[in-house]
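Justification of computing resources. Each target in the renewal requires a structure prediction run like the one illustrated here; the chain below, 166 residues long, is used simply to show the kind of job we budget for.
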Amino acid sequence: MAMSCGRRPFGLSLDPLEGESLAAARDFEQALDAITAELLAGPTIDYQHRREVLATWTLDPESWHILAQLPVLTSHLKPISDDRRRLAVSACIWTRATEGEPDFVPCPPHIAHDPALRAVWLQERHNVFHWLRTTDYQPYYGALKPLLEDHAMLLAKAIDSRSHQR
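Resulting structure tokens:
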């Protein structure tokens, strides 16, 4: 009686779970193909172009004034100045419009050269991102968040439409 060296005839499976794993792999591949087809059918978004256009952008004071017409921020924390909050909120809009990470938001050009101002901006940017994520405890930021998201969407559409017109 000859011993088998672990080989089996092609197509013959001794393990009933092997067939299930092959079916699962096939289902997974089909799902990936469907996602790929859906992505290819939609519009191509040039996030790099958005980042280049917004490299030196900040929310202008007039737009900030319109967006900030919300109840006064009530907190036990020392409030940040209106202009500093505008710059921090600009970073939030940048991340939404570019789908970028908060750590990669470019520093506003007029403070980038000053290490002290840059450090303050980084800390305030971090705080505003935190407050926007924990809106249950900060009603002001809960009301502000959808306005920022809408502004980011409009900004992204404006950038995309200008790039398609070229």
